[in-house]
Amino acid sequence: MILYFIFIALTTVIAYINNSVSKKLFYPATYVSFLWVLFVTIHLLYLLFSDRKPFPLSFIVLSYFFLALLLFSLGGLIAKGLHKNNLKADVKTVFSTTFLNVILIVNIFSLIFYFIKIKELTGYYFNLLLFRYYTSVEGIDIGFIKYSLTFSIFSLLLVLIDFYNKERKTYFTSFRLFLIFLLSFTISFLSASKGAFLFLLISTLGVYSVYRRINIKLVLKTVGITLAVFLIMGNLLKKSIPNEHTSKIEYTVFDKVEYLLYSYATLPLSAFDKFLNEPYKITYGDIAFRFPKAVFYKIGLTDTPPKDLVEKYVKVPDLVNVYTAYYKLIKDFGIIYSLTAMFLFGYLHTYFFIHSKKSFGSLIGFSMLLFPLTMTFFEENYTSLLSTWIQVILFVYATKFFMKYKYD
Predict the structure, then answer these.
(1) Can the peptide bond before residue 372 be classed as cis, meaning omega within 30 degrees of 0?
(2) Residue of 56, 52, 54 whose CA lies nearest to 255
(3) CA atoms of 325 and 55, how far apart (whole Å)
(4) Angstrom distances, CA of residue 382 to CA of 68, 287, 289, 370, 371
(5) CA angle, 234 as apex, 229 and 238 as ends, to 5°?
(6) In this predicted model, what pLDDT tens digit does every residue of 198-248 receive, in sequence order?
(7) What is the DSSP string of 104-132?
(8) Share of the chain above pLDDT 70, in %
């Protein structure tokens, strides 16, 4: 157990150093350092006090986690040093009312078509369990409507940015913001993916943090909302507690929260430990190049289908099929590649962070990349979501034709 305390102490030092660089909670290197202190602490607490005990983390894995955070922080420091004296003045980004209203209408139709697609696949308008099975396990392509999820999140960020930059806020602008949030939230919920909801929530918090101060009250509210949504979706997808729906035992909310933290916050770390301490094969880009491979396969340029992103389950001691973000990076090209990637991600995150009030594209990049950064303890969402990032880049460039800049 002493290894845990050493890791927590050293990572806290890294967090403190990063906090001296920027006092903002969402400064990427500070944020991810605190996250890893939190999740390794949760892992330790389960080992010490819970009946549910994940497999303990080894010296090799804790050392790897620390080195990855160190390189991420170093990338951030270099970005800070290179760009701190070369910044433009702050700008306010606003959009025409017509453009934002069109965005709103598109999202209304997207929601309608999403309901229609769920009914088409499952026979019901709200069978999220069956819908998730068809799209995730069976891999059924739901067509063009699948892009509505990324578009709805992007749309919310647009309206939120415009709202914060408007000098005069009317009842209509407030109502439009509420309505677009409701639409985006509903589409994320209908996707039957808890990751989609987190993507929406964390990206929104990213934009909020640029224009408003994040305080402990807001953090606690956010955590509460997240746990509530996860519990609701867990019940709908029958994943809240194993055998809950066939057992006569009545589980309390506390039992469900405890299992939620156990399965999401501890098991992926133990699964990664099992992976790293056993022989494994390098796949040479099966994940990083999956999207172009999928495109080539679909248009007939290759006969080899892309690798399935759903991994096999391992027992650590309960079954889990996610292994932290580092697993897929290492599987692609090895440990050196994964650590280099974390250094580059640290640079990229920090670049977007320091330019977030200078450039619309940087603000979107900073806020939306907070999602894969947050999920490093759980699953890799940088290279495996390549198609999503391509969509975001296209949306950003298309939107630039409709924005108006005003310098402070």
Answers:
(1) no
(2) 52
(3) 18
(4) 15, 10, 12, 11, 9
(5) 155
(6) 999 999 999 999 998 887 788 878 888 888 887 777 776 677 777 665 666
(7) HHHHHHHHHHHHHHHHHHHSSSS-HHHHH
(8) 93
Cβ atoms of 214 and 34 within 8 Å: the answer is no
Instruction: Pick the closest to residue 378 from 22, 32, 19 (CA basis).
Output: 32
Tokens linked to 191 = 């996707």
Cβ pair 353, 26 in contact under 8 A: yes
| Mean pLDDT value across residues 28-55 | 95
pLDDT of residue 139: 66
Q: Where are the domains of the chain?
A: 2-90+265-360+376-384
User: Which 3 state secondary structure label does DSSP give 159?
Assistant: helix
Judge contact between 360 and 122, C-beta under 8 A: no
Cβ burial 206-226 (10 Å sphere, 16+ → b, else e) = bbbbbeeeeeeeeeeebeeeb
**For the stretch 243-281, what's the b/e string if a residue is b when 16 or more beta carbons lie within 10 angstroms of its beta carbon?**
ebeeeeeeeeeeebebbbbbbbbbbbbbbbbbbbeeeee
> CA nearest 366: which of 161, 192, 103?
161
Token pair 């999202």 is found at 107
Report the run of H or E that residue 228 belongs to, with start and end. Answer: helix 216-236
Nearest to 324 by CA among 389, 264, 258: 264
In tens, the pLDDT along 90-124 reads: 888 888 889 999 999 999 999 998 888 888 888 87
Q: Report helix, strand and coil shares of the chain as percent, to nearest 5.
A: 70, 5, 25
Residue with tokens 């845990």: 4
Q: How far apart are CA 183 and CA 189, in angstroms?
A: 10
Q: Is 94 helix (H, G, I), strand (E, B) or coil?
A: strand
User: Distance between CA atoms of 266 and 317, rounded to whole angstroms?
Assistant: 11
Instruction: Determine which helix (DSSP H) or strand (DSSP E) holds 188, and give its type and residue range.
Output: helix 171-190
For 47-99, write each residue's pLDDT tens digit.
Answer: 999 999 999 999 999 999 999 999 999 999 999 988 776 666 788 888 888 99
Whole-number pLDDT of residue 278: 93
Residue 367 CA, distance from chain mean position: 10
The H or E element that residue 320 is part of is: strand 319-320
